[in-house]
């Protein structure tokens, strides 16, 4: 009889902290599907470790995997296991229904004998010791040692150390109290606070460089009994002993070729030379090391064009063995397919770049985020051989080419390309790829489409590409030939092709993790060259995976150097115009600042590059092992003010659209009906008073974001009536945290999560919204971005109502769900239920939406949206008072009339007044055309009339000239009522009004009487009203 509960005992390394640990459960056999943030709590703790009572259900058996478990505290994962139905049945059918995990290398159905348990975690590759300088090791166990014990460092050149065999060379360590200067190590490594300090003897300090090549272990013994034993992490020691700034990779001159690899822990390194990109026998040449940690081999010029790998022999902490590992060069510039072999080459000069539109300031950017394959995979006008390839960007006259030129003309300055470096999640040889055959009769809410797509998801041509292998090589699946220099030349041609369209190029770079690790596998590179160094490890020695896999350690000198080198390399050798850093918050702030400095050093005279104009921005999220500065200061949002480095402002997305990436997609925001319509789901209904409060807070946050997210900007009054508070202190400070507008990237939708159109479908379904309202909600989101100060970023397809059939994470969902049709004729909405993995929990509420034909956007709707998109961008580009460059100008010139406790819910008004730059009061005004600009964002479903904000200037407000020719009828109906001096704003519209400069031919003086209005209290008293009328006539 199968037990209804599994009593799970998990053994943890001795002295490992257990506070906050819980068990995440999933799979069909688990009767409890725990949210990540609410894991199953510990039942009890005993001499063995932690005990959990896992409720089981055996009713339905779906697939092979029955039960998945991850022991974690937040993003800190300690242990994981997946059980098949067969394995689970064996444990559940046992008489006790108990299983012990964590000793003897696997599960056990019987309780272990405490006398026979090994003390320590060497057998599980633990490494809780930290050799942080030549003379100092930190170990938490050493913080509370029994009297008369002995702490030792053991070394083995053959990797023969274990709890049972601590033989080999041994050094006795001395527990010490360190001085103030040495205590800085805890400032650099806050997560090690509380560890005991161990001083190494002089002979060990002198031998430190040699010891880096050996297996190391720490032990505590008392009366010859081992109390604890663990491995040692040496990353910081390598930084002390082997930091290197000289040439790496392949270099060539007239004397020949030099190959250089930094591998200080290696026992030996050899070059394997190949004549071809694949197959063939390698010629082996030994490399030599000079004590710097760098291994070199030299060869004749005839090596040019050959392929090579390194064969590194070194101790690997993942296996606890000496491993012989073959790897391409981490500094490769080109390679064979699937990063199989590096290419010995010297890159030819970059092609001459066409003349580009002037770009005067980083805050003047407007960014369009696009996936390389999405751009052309579905475009019938593209050369068939170039579909989904780099060269599609070079071909002129295609639908995609004309569309990008239209966006560039309107005001898009940069195209941000999702990863185009070498990644490992798409087979690069065409013959090794398979594309799915979609069922011909599957309905709009069928499971059939996603089943077909996901069956071949890891074998088809599509993936977002956030799976880096070689950072310096372009991706081969986008090239017509994945071997050799073809991928390099075609990537360069793509960049040049975009430049010809008037668009600069931002490269999406992923330095926070790598696709592979360990001593085997084709995707592991850095971890083969210097095992255990380049990857960030937990205190107990396991590789951190909070970014999704194999987190990198930019706190290590050579990992930081690698990032800086690669950024400069792409700018110089591929002429990209900026960098978007994936999960930038996991990189150290020092590393990111060094990247900025490296770009700023590039000059037009020496490099042909205007380095200070290159963009740098990224995701400043703070989570996982880096949270709360546990690994030092990282490039997360709260640390970036004053750095000149941009970050995504998720405060605007939450306020405008509603909810967050981790909340119910039906949650509404300012543009999607919050407080103004019923909720899309009954379970989300809250009392109207609370909804209106949330709406006012959302409006405030939109105001702060429109003011460039400046933390020192002062809103005259917030929605609770508080006056003059810095924006960084309002509503949690999430919307305002920067010091300059170039440091904020405003966005509402990007490639992650649902598209903008799909989001409005969730939040504004047919039951509460019309087709037109949904359309206008999309436009409002675009308007908020386009008309704000700061850098706007738009997701490719926002302008054509792109859908992914409600897929919230389409990274591996194939061309089918990632369809991008710039004509708007073929929408992906209603092309089947999205893939099961991240979407199945919402399949049931999705089905009626996907079946509703009125929700499928038409070509006419897409064309209207493109026109509105271009109209708004053109207004931003042609109006210098929108998108101000300097923080002081925003603080002085930008106001939000109507804010405060008495604000009109659902309406945001921004006024920008002209004047000389704050930095040069004697200069000409910023704008030659307008004395001021007033932007009105109205989410209300009816027309509104607002008083013209009082001004010292004497002109009448007018509709922006580009609105007068708008293709949207409602926009053209917006006006200024000169008699009442009111702005007339149509329902669900974003309207820009302007007051022309007196020198403008469109200038019209204002009737002075309109500038004087009685206080509202006067109109309530007849006698005061009479006095006012007399005064009015005198005026």
Descriptive overview:
By secondary structure, the protein is of the alpha+beta class. Helix content is 22%, strand content 22%. It is built from 25 helices and 42 strands. The strands form 9 sheets. It has an 8-stranded parallel beta barrel, surrounded by 4 helices. Strands 9-10-13-12-11-14-15 form a 7-stranded mixed β-barrel. A 5-stranded mixed beta sheet has the order 3-4-1-7-8, with no helix packed on it. Strand 16 and strand 17 form a beta hairpin. The mean pLDDT is 93.
Task: List strands and helices in order, with pairings.
Layout: E1 5-11, E2 22-26, E3 44-45, E4 49-55, E5 65-73, E6 76-84, H1 85-93, E7 98-103, E8 106-108, E9 129-133, E10 136-139, E11 150-156, E12 169-176, H2 184-188, E13 196-199, H3 202-206, H4 208-211, E14 215-222, E15 225-233, H5 235-242, E16 249-253, E17 256-262, E18 266-274, E19 283-286, E20 288-289, E21 294-299, E22 307-316, E23 321-327, E24 342-343, E25 367-370, H6 372-376, H7 399-410, E26 414-417, E27 421-423, H8 448-455, E28 468-474, H9 486-500, E29 504-509, H10 526-529, H11 557-574, E30 578-581, H12 589-600, H13 604-607, E31 615-618, E32 646-649, H14 650-656, H15 688-706, E33 744-746, H16 756-763, H17 771-787, E34 791-795, H18 814-817, H19 836-839, H20 843-851, H21 859-878, H22 887-893, E35 894-895, E36 907-913, E37 930-938, E38 944-947, E39 958-959, H23 961-964, H24 969-973, E40 975-977, E41 982-985, E42 989-996, H25 1022-1034
Parallel strand pairs: 1-7, 9-15, 25-26, 25-34, 26-29, 29-30, 30-31, 31-32, 32-33, 33-34
Antiparallel strand pairs: 1-4, 2-5, 3-4, 5-6, 7-8, 9-10, 10-13, 11-12, 11-14, 12-13, 14-15, 16-17, 17-21, 18-19, 18-22, 20-21, 22-23, 22-24, 27-28, 35-36, 36-37, 37-42, 38-41, 39-42, 40-41
